[in-house]
Every structure is written in C-alpha cells, then in structure tokens.
C-alpha cells in the first residue's frame, strides 16, 4: 500500500478526527472565500474607485487575519489528531517508516481533507459573500448599484489561502511527530507528555509583544484617527489572543498544581481523575483552551472597543456618520463570522478529544471508577480548560480595550455594561460543557470490556 493509500485508510478508521478537521477547514474556507469575493466585486463594471478601494481594503484585512485564525484553528485540531495517534505513528516507525514518510502521511491527509472541504464550501461562500455586500450597501458604505460578483479571485484567493493554512498546520504537526522516536511515541500515547517547543514559546512571546505594542500605539500615536485607531486596537486584541493561546500549555501546567491543592478535598475521586488527566494530557486540554482564548479575546475586545467609541461620540456630541455606522456593521460581521468559526472549533475539539478517550474510560471503569465519577471528572476538566481560556482571552481583550480607551478618552477608567461579557462567558461554558458531556456519555455507552480494547475515534 502506498503512503497516500495508508493516509486515506487511516481516515476511514478515525471518523471523529476526520469530521472535526473537515468541519473546521470547511468553515474556514467559507469565511475566506466569502470575503475574497469582494475582490471580484471591486473589479466589476461601473464600480467607482472609492467603492473599489473600500471593498479591496475589507477583503485584504479579513483575508490576512482570517488566514491566521483559520490556520490556527486547523492547527489545533490537527495537533490534537496527531497526539491521539502516537501509538499508530510509533508502530509505523518501529516497522521502518522514516520521519519524512510519517510527515507525508499527515500532510497527505490534511491536503485531502482541505481540498474536499474547500470545494464543498464554494456555494455557502457565494451566499454569505452576497450577505456581506448587502450589509455594506445597506449601511451606505458601498453604493447601491454595485453588483455582486463571485469569480476567479474568490476561488483562487479562498482556495489557496485555505490550502496554505492547512498545509502550514499539517507541516508543523508532521515535523513535531517526525522528531519523536518510536519509544517516545509509545510513552506519549499514554501520557501526552510532549513538551512545548522553543519555537512556539518564542512565537507566542513575540505575538504578545506585538499586541501590547499595538495597544500602546493606539493610546499614544493614533489618538482620534478614526477607523485606523479602531483597526489597530482590534489587531492588539487578536495578536495578544493568539500569543496567549500559543503559551497556554505553560499556563495550564502552572495552574493545575494550585487548583489541585484547593479542589482535591472537595471533589474526591472525580477531582483526582480530572487533575491527573490534565497533568498527563495537557495537549488535549489546550485544544479546548485555545479556541476559547480566540473567541473571548476577539468578541469581547471588538464589542467593548465599539461601545467605547459610541459612548465617546455621544459624550462629545458627535453625530455618527454613515461611514462610522458602516465600520460598526462591518466589525460585527467580521467578528461574528470569526467568533462562530472559533466556537465550532471549540465544539469539534471537545468532541474529538473525548471520543478518542473511549479506551481510557473503559480501563478506568475496569479499575473501579463509576460512569458518574468519569462524567464529573470530564466536567471538571472542561471547566478548568474553559475557565483558563476565558481568563487569558479576557487579558488579551483588556490589552486592546485599555489602549483604545486611553487613546479615545485620555483615561483608563472604564464604565462598561457587563452583560456582553457575561453573555460571552455563558456561551463558552454552555458550548464546552454540552459538547464534552455529550461526547463523554457516548464514549461511556459502550460496554466496559469492549471500550477497554477500542482505540478508534
């Protein structure tokens, strides 16, 4: 059997991981192609230079950050999938497979999923792109006579960026898997003990510095620069969120020791199972934490930055222009789509990580744990990962909000409504707990003896 055939055969037996990655890539392709269609629309007949410039700017801005966020979401799912397959990869290495061959298997799977997902995303992207243009014209940011076009630029830009994001994500996962020896892979299959790489720490630190720098620039250099100030403040939230997401494994490992000391007397056996699982499988916990950080940082940051802008305009007696309304509408559209993508990544990662633990749950039941204890342990793990993500996401949002607040009002004093933030927290908790407990119950539905010998996902 060829390596590509082996890759496809592996996908057939790992439907859970395949579905999670497929959905993430599909939604990412829809987001990227829908906004890339604005390039085609900008090049249409009769489009004014001002409208063409606005459409191109919007498409480029969303495409750039969309590529980063989609790539990040796909990378988290691919990394989770690779971690779940350490025993399989160890067996391949033990039978003589080279690291480059292991890499080609992983990249081949990613490419196959990416192509299928991107092609199926064309029709939804066409529909959503039309909705985006309608929103722009309804707020008078684009002339009403601009006709929607979904052409080669949307397909080329959308498909190429989707493939680029997936290729980058799978290449990183493949390189990490290729560096692990067969003996290490077998031990990591049980403990998920791979340490965080130096490159990841450096990248996370640099992005965090970029986010803080954008916030400082917003507070000092870009005071009252309108859309530019809003844009840079938003970039501060995004860069900080991605940086903290990359560093989240270090945070989880540091927090779990303190949490264990406090909660162990209160949670009993379920708490012991949960804290042990988090220590040994930090990578799976961060698969939940990372999309929560992105979702919280981006949603909270954008919502409150816009609220600060509106409140400052009202205090100064400034009449909101059509352009300002258009910017606000555009912000909500962009953030809504990317936040939806992050939310679905969260659900997929919760489900994929728990379905892959069917064998672990079966062995735990053989050792005497009850299904109720396992479910409580899963709830504890999920709440810990989600709460950590909410805390780090809040920090990333606060970086951008503080910079914009000072630059717009000259003060760091905030008087904001807590309802939007509480809505974000509630949404994250409900999504994470519902997805995790549903997947855990499905894993526990199998007979104990059968589950203890099943490793498929």
Automatic annotation (TrEMBL):
Q: Where in the cell is it found?
A: Cell membrane
How does this chain sit within the bilayer? Answer: Multi-pass membrane protein
A single cellular component GO annotation: plasma membrane
- Where would you find the membrane-spanning parts of this chain? 18-38, 58-82, 102-128, 148-169, 201-221, 233-256, 285-305, 332-356, 377-406, 418-440
Q: Which InterPro entries match?
A: ABC3_permease_C, Macrolide_Exporter_MacB
Q: Name one Pfam family in it.
A: FtsX
Domain ABC3 transporter permease C-terminal intervals: 66-178, 333-444
One GO molecular function term of this record is:
transmembrane transporter activity
- The principal location of this protein is membrane
Arranged from A to Z, the UniProt key words for this protein are: Cell membrane, Membrane, Transmembrane, Transmembrane helix
Q: Which family does it belong to?
A: Belongs to the ABC-4 integral membrane protein family.
Q: What is this protein called?
A: ABC transport system permease protein
Q: Which organism is it from?
A: Plantactinospora soyae
